[in-house]
Structures are given as C-alpha cells and as structure tokens.
Specification:
The structure is a single chain. The protein contains seven helices and nine strands; from the N terminus they run E-E-H-H-E-E-H-H-H-H-H-E-E-E-E-E. By secondary structure, the protein is an alpha+beta fold. The chain has one domain. Strand 6 and strand 7 form a beta hairpin. The model has no long low-confidence stretch (mean pLDDT about 95).
C-alpha cells in the first residue's frame, strides 16, 4: 500500500494500480525500449503480487496508521515480492528478470539475514534467466531497468504528493534520472503536469484509484487521482 497522509485521514493507493500508472509513462517514453512488450510488461506489473494483500488495510498498531510499502512486516513483504516476481517470470522471463533486479537492488547493502537470503535467491534467479536471453536483450537490460525505476518513481511521486505540488523529495536518491538526464516535475495547475525536459511522445491521462480511511480507521470512500501529463 502507498499511504498519503492528510490531517484527518489517509489516502491508500494499491501498489499494483500505481505500477499500472508507471506503465503508462513507459508506454509513451519517446525512446522505446527493446524488447518493447517485455519491458512494458515489467514496468506495469512489477507490483503484481500486491493485488491481494492490498485489498485489506493492515494497521500498524505502533504508529497508529496503515502499514505502507516502507514499513510493511518484513516476512510478509519479502514473500509477496518473491511471489510477484514468480508470476511475472511465468508470463515473460525477461520481464521477470527486470522485476528481480528491481527488488534485489533495494537490498544491495542490507545485512539483515532475511533480506540477504532474498537478495541471493534473486541473484541466482537472474543468473538462471540470463542463460535464455539473447545478446540484444542483455545489452539493453540496464537501460530497461533504469526506465522501470524512473517510471516507478514518477508514479510513486504522484501518489505520495498532493496534486499541484508537495514537499516530499523524489522516491529515489538522485531524483528522476534516465541515461544521464535529470527530469524535474513542473505543475502547470493542480491537475496538469509536465517533465522538464520532456521525454514523452504525446500528452496522456493518468488515473489511479485510491481509498480514504479516517484516522479512526473508518472507511471514508474511494476516488480517482486523475492527472494530465503534457509535453
């Protein structure tokens, strides 16, 4: 779950819905990735495993707020991530490779036994998958992984911040970067934004569903975050 704080409530975005929005950014990226379909599938489905867990609001009793993807119980989080990579790999091995890279990269410096085990298993998965990938796909692997990360970061940024602004930094250190270019989010108004410089082929709409839960844990309904991305 992606959780945005408000004074009297929390906005809860399902992680798979956020990933589908990331896929829209990748779909309209001006320099199409190769292989296109496999990379696009990875970007749009990298959080596939969270469809079921995110149906239920899991409450962090210690912090008196819903658990987010940041503090979700480690054993449940790692199991879900592994299951999600398995699902993506079963559909498309190249996409599974990219998703494995995505989750393992977060844990490169970790020394927690559970995370070390997860990372090592994913490294082994990547070595196995590497054997079945052609030279061109391997050559583009890091580039496509970078595209996944920048699109993931942009979508996370939209979920975490109120439209029209926000003081949270980009989700990844270094901001929104791709192949040496750093992109800045520019809000034209509360529902319209663009990136500077522009990396997209055309304008498009982004719609991400969310639920609202009061600080007293009462469900307060649902809505859509609807934004327009201009060139």
């Amino acid at each position: 779950m992606i959780v945005r704080d408000r004074p009297d409530s929390f906005l809860l975005f399902g992680q798979h819905e956020h990933a589908l929005a990331a896929g829209k950014f990748a779909l309209r990226w001006s320099e199409r990735p190769r292989p296109f379909e496999s990379t696009l599938y990875a970007v749009a489905n990298h959080d596939l495993a969270w469809r079921e867990p995110d149906r239920e609001v899991l409450w962090n009793e210690g912090k008196d707020r819903p658990y987010s993807f940041v503090d979700y119980p480690l054993d449940l989080k790692l199991a879900a991530q592994r299951r999600g990579i398995d699902l993506v790999e079963a559909h498309d091995p190249y996409a599974g490779f990219l998703c494995s890279m995505h989750y393992a990269r977060f844990l490169l410096e970790s020394k927690r036994p559970e995370e070390v085990e997860f990372r090592e298993r994913e490294m082994a998965r990547q070595e196995r998958l590497r054997e079945g990938i052609g030279p061109e796909e391997l050559e583009n692997l890091e580039r496509n992984f970078s595209l996944l990360r920048v699109c993931d970061g942009l979508s996370l940024f939209l979920c975490l911040n109120e439209p029209g602004g926000g003081d949270r930094p980009p989700p990844y250190p270094g901001g929104f970067q791709f192949e040496g270019t750093r992109f800045e989010v520019v809000w034209e108004d509360e529902r319209t934004l663009r990136l500077d410089p522009n990396p997209f082929t055309d304008e498009f709409e982004v719609a991400i569903p969310y639920r609202v839960v009061g600080r007293d844990r009462r469900p307060l309904g649902s809505d859509l975050l609807e934004l327009r991305v201009t060139c």
